[in-house]
Write a sequence for this structure.
């Protein structure tokens, strides 16, 4: 199970720059990511589907109670800088974060840094790491809203969606060892020919899994 988290929302806009509120793009890419994973027949959930506020206690509880193995918390940055950042818990290795970063870089977004951050008493600084229990959570900052370089790329909706898809595929690869049944990847309308479903299927087969690509509507 993969949980998608659309950061901020409601009264909490997140970063604000050049007339854009971070919460809007967070929701947009999260909804795309959620639908993308469903088309690949990967079990997934999402913390919010509308512009609602989720206080830290409620958001972290949604993560803890989701039954997910991993959580992708989607964000966009501001405050000076350029490039994507991937943040992991201090109690996990950087391998999952590195895999996501590799996907973002392949799609065309330079990586600023991959890191964890320690807060008070030696605990994780970010509550999405500190309060989400055993769920392995990554905070993904896809780029800076106040960077002219980043915005030139991020203003293209299809590019934002491509970044979201690469992060989702990295999550699937990360949990592949926990998939206990054959994997059926749906080849649906938008994913014809050289699809990401086919690419992922090939990778899973290479790892010894029974992975099959099927047309939408076919039985398995």
């Amino acid at each position: 199970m993969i949980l998608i988290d659309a950061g901020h929302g409601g009264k909490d806009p997140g970063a604000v720059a050049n007339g854009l509120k971070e919460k809007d793009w967070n929701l947009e890419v999260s909804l795309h990511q959620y639908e993308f994973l469903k088309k690949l027949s990967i079990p997934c959930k999402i913390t919010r589907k509308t512009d609602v506020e989720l206080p830290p206690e409620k958001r972290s509880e949604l993560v803890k109670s989701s039954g997910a193995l991993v959580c992708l918390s989607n964000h966009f940055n501001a405050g000076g800088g350029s490039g994507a950042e991937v943040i992991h818990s201090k109690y996990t290795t950087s391998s999952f974060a590195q895999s996501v970063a590799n996907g973002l870089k392949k799609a065309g977004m330079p990586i600023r840094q991959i890191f964890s951050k320690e807060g008070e008493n030696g605990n994780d600084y970010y509550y999405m790491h500190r309060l989400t229990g055993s769920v392995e959570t990554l905070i993904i900052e896809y780029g800076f809203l106040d960077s002219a370089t980043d915005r030139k790329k991020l203003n293209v909706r299809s590019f934002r969606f491509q970044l979201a898809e690469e992060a989702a595929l990295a999550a699937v690869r990360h949990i592949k060892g926990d998939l206990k049944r054959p994997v059926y990847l749906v080849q649906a309308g938008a994913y014809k020919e050289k699809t990401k479903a086919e690419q992922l299927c090939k990778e899973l087969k290479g790892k010894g899994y029974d992975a099959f690509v099927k047309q939408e509507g076919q039985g398995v």
Summary: The CA atoms of residues 82 and 149 lie 7 Å apart. The two ends are 20 Å apart (CA to CA). Residues 2-178 form a domain with the Aminopeptidase fold (CATH 3.40.630.40). The helical segments are 22-39, 56-64, 95-107, 127-130, 148-154, 157-175, 196-206.
